[in-house]
Amino acid sequence: MSQSRSRLGDDRMMAPVSASIEPDNAEFDAHAGRYREMHAAVLGASGESPEYFAQYKLSVLRDIVELDDRPVLDYGCGIGNLTRLLATGEVEVHGYDPSAKSILTARSLAPTATFHDRLDTVPTGAFGTVVLANVLHHVEPAEREQVIREIVPMLAPGGRVMVFEHNRWNPLTVRAVRRCEFDEGVSLLSEPDLNRLLSAGGLTAVRSRFIVFFPKALRFLRRLEPRLARVPLGAQVCVWGVKPS
């Protein structure tokens, strides 16, 4: 498997991700210390902070997959913005990212979580939910199915994979990605792409929802977002599937 480049994601700085190799992360380690500042600049048009988007994802997770008492894995956790929120409850939380410097920051944000910078230390057959938040567009298209296939064994029977991605059908999202220093050259995925990817990776009951429709200036309209789940104009799309029991 060839090395995959990774750049600034939606709410984390993620090192290059591959399910089979441990790449050289020096370039991305160098940015770990200034990630939040860079990310906040990218989000400027939304009027919201990186923490808002991490909390948004947690709310979607709770609404869709009904997090139970089984462990959760934040795959491609970066500096731990989402991991920190996941780890505030009683559920056992793990984070994986091959950037050692990002993991150091993540440990400071989420001291109760267990972190891994090598895939061979991540437990198998253990997780009720594995979250990939803005990870897959950093993976070479030909390698994405293999990433999903190698994540599925980490799930317990009946466990779920939850994927958040930029919506390539939203022109404002596409423009923001093109302006992002770490997203240079990435290939965004559509909702059908994600549905096919999760099904091909061995997951069943694959479903999807569009999310993140209104900037802070229009926050009074956000209560309408659940009704817009099938409107393909959200800034983000989430897709999820289940490991057969």
How would you portray this structure in words?
The chain is built from eight helices and seven strands, in the order αααβαβαββαβααββ. Strand 2, helix 5 and strand 3 form a beta-alpha-beta unit. The longest helix is centred in the N-terminal third of the chain and has 15 residues. About 30% of the residues lie in helices and about 20% in strands. With about 240 residues, it is α/β, with parallel strands linked by helices. The protein has a seven-stranded mixed β-sheet with strand order 3-2-1-4-5-7-6, sandwiched between helices. It has one domain: Rossmann fold (3-Layer(aba) Sandwich), CATH 3.40.50.150. The N terminus is likely disordered.
Task: Please give the CATH class.
Answer: Alpha Beta
CATH homologous superfamily label: Vaccinia Virus protein VP39
Count of helical regions = 8
CATH architectural group: 3-Layer(aba) Sandwich
- Could you give the distance between the termini? 29 Å
pLDDT under 50 segments (min length 5)?
Answer: 1-24
Number of domains: 1
Averaged pLDDT? 83
Helix and strand string, N-terminal first? HHHEHEHEEHEHHEE
Fraction in helix: 25-40%
